[in-house]
Write a structure and sequence with these properties.
The complex is a heterotrimer of chains A (133), B (330) and C (388). Chain A has 133 residues and is mainly β. Chain A contains 1 helix and 8 strands, in the order H-E-E-E-E-E-E-E-E. Chain B has 10 helices and 12 strands. Chain B is globular. Chains in contact: A-B, A-C. At the A-B interface, strand 7 and strand 8 of A face helix 2, helix 3 and helix 10 of B.
């Protein structure tokens, strides 16, 4: 899972602030990687849309054989999170028992270390934890 | 008078069993704490700061300043306060200050927050001490984060008012390096006398300024309840019940810059309107004492529950994936 | 064979730090679709040429990535790779798709994002397009391997470095007139001779820069283009591909000649023309010596004489045949996967009459693009014709 440091700063996941992409034409929300194309209406212009960070688990898996950067954290849960704003995002969910994950659990986004990058730089992005509010 | 408007804490859920580590390194004797609060492999001082701040802010963004204090910033060249501010979506025009660290940094930050003219200030103390492998059983170190919002405005209302501070310092060199040897040649206990002298002097100095005897505070919140410190406080009239709710080192270890913050969070969680708190931080030969008076019973942030919860980690796995990182800020 | 060129598009060819591989590909693809007057859903197959995304960008599966971000899903998409001949190979597959009758409208797109990495890194990635563990173990790289060919040419035909320098002078003359070129400065023979040595006898002005770019064509069945009389009627009338030497050390001048001579014979047959019918040609010249070799291989000059046209004017814009009026790879740069498709776009612009003035060959009716790849491993010939 080595990534290009430069490409990571241009594209890649939300680093410190979680967002989705909103179609300038039809308003549909897409995940953050849809910078070019709206799959709902075919529109070719989308803008960043801030997400509040709350949602619920709609699907999940438990990883036992991680990529290099996640070694030591297995087994860990990766879920599909339906954000309250209506967009679906994949992300690790921390602090849940891998044997007892429940679809429907409310979660909140938080900041976590994703990997060490080139020259010791650190890449941060979002993961989810159970929302107890 | 500056006011505390909200606070938050974060203690990672994992515990490294200290006894096991001591055995491995052939260091007999009673472990100082049951287990060390250990950040997960995907956590560090920045992510813990984020968690604590998230709890304290609850979505609030209109802050004039962010001050962070830690011994272990994750970046070498980038400011932690700035990165934290970005992650929390705070006003980009806010003042961002990284304070150099030791256990007194949080109280220094309170003092600075009182003097800034930019509006409410977020102060975060977060730490994950980088330990020396050759020191006794400190291979894995404890981490936690605490966050406070200070409003210096004249019309500010909040949970507690910030009273005066008092400081005392001992002239000591970087004596803790003496403990780096595999088998120390000096009796390190001698150094602990400095704890007692400095904290006692700071507490005594505060008595003079506030005219409130040390024994009369509802809670004393020390960064380190070392026996020497406690003896010094007892001499000033402190009672065990003042320290009942604010102890944590025996449970999760020393959390560096966040220690006095965590003691304060525990004190605040247990307080009600009219409670008085004495925060007492000691680090590197300096002691700072700070008075606080609770004006409105705060909603508990659950610091004690965070401390009591604890999932033992597999030390071998953890050490395997962090050994390289022990040399770096974590 | 007859394949309609419905639309073309390309990005600027230069270092573009603010653009990712995805940005470049989407830009070129959209330009081509707009020019063609089609929407993404009209594209029935997508061929994406890209050589080094694994090395330069730490990503793979470029074809699938571009298909998604262009919105051509659910049409099929695939990545094409054949070293520096990649873009031409994508074009070939697009032509075959149309000529087979299985598809009406397809897109061919070449893209490369080379400049996130430092030069030393980039050179090593490029070296992987040759046999880096055996031959390059001797310390050879693409420039130095080609330099050996240049010296052989000079020795065999008694040609001097000054003689060869005219090729760079001509290419730079037109590069300066090409708004989308990477390098846009003229130079004299003297300046070429004085430019820094890269790999003797090749000098700085005789080698191409590393470039970020993408270019694309929408191809269609000829009837579809013919039915739109208001569109320029430019067709691809031949596509002929061959392979050659994999090891630079065993690459002889005969091999270099045959790399184009063999496929171009088939190409002329397919198109029903001969070398004298060609008005304009884009000949792969990441290193200047490849232009004279290509001129000879395509039958525009006798062996050993290919360099002369740059000196006597016969391969300049208004000469017998305009060779590389775009400035060639020397000035456009060599964005590995896009070079072949950019050559095609440039020839189509010549035949449409829309190439920028100063580099437009007037009344061009027949054009040819010749692309090569690897140490001497890919020969790719396409012939284009304007009708009406």
């Amino acid at each position: 899972m080595t990534v290009s440091a430069i490409e990571f700063s241009r594209l890649g996941p939300p680093k410190l602030q979680l967002f989705a992409m909103k179609c300038d034409k039809c308003g549909e929300l897409s995940p953050w990687w849809e910078r070019s194309h709206c799959y709902k209406c075919g529109g070719d212009s989308l803008s960043e849309f801030e997400l509040a960070g709350k949602g619920e688990i709609t699907n999940y898996t438990v990883v036992y054989y991680p990529p290099r950067e996640f070694l030591g954290q297995e087994p860990y849960v990766v879920g599909h999170i339906q954000m309250d704003e209506g967009v679906n995002l994949p992300a690790p969910v921390m602090g849940v028992d891998p044997d007892a994950v429940e679809v429907g659990t409310r979660v909140a986004a938080t900041l976590r270390r994703m990997k060490l990058g080139h020259e010791g730089d650190i890449y941060y992005s979002y993961k989810f934890v159970v929302d107890d509010e | 008078m500056a006011v505390l408007t909200s606070y938050g804490a974060y203690v990672p859920q994992y515990r490294a069993p200290l006894g096991e580590i001591q055995k491995f390194y052939g260091r007999p004797g009673r472990p100082r704490s049951r287990g060390l609060a250990t950040p997960g492999l995907d956590e560090d001082t920045l992510t813990m700061a984020y968690e604590a701040a998230r709890q304290a802010l609850k979505g609030e963004r209109g802050l004039g300043a962010v001050i962070t204090t830690t011994q272990a910033p994750p970046f070498e060249l980038r400011k932690m306060s700035q990165t934290l501010g970005l992650a929390l979506r705070l006003d980009a025009g806010a003042v961002h200050i990284d304070l150099g660290a030791n256990a007194t940094g949080l109280l220094d930050a309170f003092r600075i927050a009182q003097t800034l003219d930019v509006g409410p200030t977020l102060v975060v103390a977060t730490d994950h001490l980088v330990s020396y492998r050759d020191r006794v059983a400190d291979v894995l170190s404890a981490g936690a984060a605490t966050a406070f919002v200070i409003d210096p405005g004249k019309k500010a209302e909040g949970i507690a008012t910030l009273g005066p501070q008092s400081r005392a310092a001992e002239e000591v060199f970087d004596v803790w390096m003496l403990g780096r040897e595999q088998e120390p040649r000096f009796r390190l206990e001698v150094l602990f006398d400095a704890y007692a002298r400095a904290t006692g002097a700071a507490a005594k100095g505060l008595e003079k300024v506030t005219e409130r005897p040390t024994g009369k505070y509802t809670s004393i919140c020390p960064s380190q309840p070392h026996p020497q410190v406690l003896r010094g406080l007892a001499r000033l009239g402190a009672q065990p019940k003042q320290l009942e709710s604010t102890q944590f080192v025996g449970d999760i270890g020393n959390v560096g810059a966040a220690s006095v913050g965590l003691a304060l969070c525990l004190g605040l969680d247990a307080s009600r309107k009219g409670s008085t708190l004495l925060a007492l931080a000691y680090g590197g030969g300096e002691a700072v004492a700070q008075e606080m008076e609770v004006t409105r019973k705060p909603k508990s942030v659950g610091a004690r529950e965070m401390i009591d919860a604890g999932e033992e980690i597999a030390v071998g796995t953890y050490y395997r994936w962090t050994e390289g990182r022990q040399q770096q800020p974590h | 064979m007859k394949v309609g060129v419905l639309g073309i598009g390309k990005t600027p060819h230069k270092i573009q730090h603010d653009k990712s591989l995805q940005d470049l590909a989407v830009e070129a693809g959209r330009k081509a679709m707009n020019d063609a007057g089609v929407s993404p859903q009209d594209i029935q197959m997508l061929y994406v040429g890209n050589v080094g995304s694994v090395g330069f960008n730490y990503e793979n599966s470029t074809g699938l990535m571009v298909a998604h971000h262009l919105g051509v899903v659910p049409a099929g998409a695939v990545r094409v790779e054949a070293a520096c001949g990649t873009g031409a190979w994508a074009l070939h597959l697009g032509c075959v798709a149309i000529a087979s009758g299985l598809y009406d409208t397809v897109m061919v797109l070449g893209c490369e994002k080379m400049n996130d990495l430092a030069t030393v890194e980039g050179t090593s990635i490029i070296a992987q397009a040759a046999d880096s563990k055996e031959e390059y173990f001797s310390g050879l790289t693409f420039p130095s391997g080609t330099a050996l060919t240049a010296r052989k040419y000079m020795q065999t035909y008694g040609v001097s470095e000054e003689d060869l320098a005219h090729t760079s002078v001509k290419n730079h003359y037109y590069g300066a007139r090409n708004p989308s070129a990477h390098l846009r400065f003229e130079c004299t023979v003297d300046e070429v001779m004085k430019s820094a040595k890269v790999a003797d006898p090749l000098k700085l002005y005789e080698v191409c820069p590393m470039t970020d770019a993408a270019s694309a064509l929408v191809l269609c069945r000829p009837e579809i283009l013919e039915a739109q009389a208001n569109k320029p009627q430019v067709f691809i009338t031949a596509t002929s591909m061959g392979s050659g030497t994999w090891y630079q050390a065993s690459d002889t001048l005969d091999d270099a000649y045959n790399l184009f001579a063999r496929p171009v014979e088939r190409a002329y047959e397919m198109a029903g023309i001969g070398p004298d019918d060609v008005d304009v040609a884009e000949i792969y010249n990441s290193f200047a010596i490849q232009e004279p070799l290509g001129i000879e291989g395509l039958g525009f000059a006798e062996r050993g004489d290919g360099w002369k046209g740059a000196e006597d004017g016969s391969t300049w814009l208004d000469g017998t045949i305009a060779i590389n009026p775009s400035g060639g790879l020397l000035c456009k740069g060599h964005p590995l996967g896009a070079t072949g498709s950019t050559q095609a776009v440039d020839i189509v612009e010549q035949l449409r009459g829309t190439a920028p003035e100063g580099m437009l060959r007037k009344d061009a009716e027949i054009g040819i693009s010749a692309c090569r790849g690897g140490p001497g491993s890919v020969g790719a010939i396409h012939i284009y014709q304007r009708e009406g």
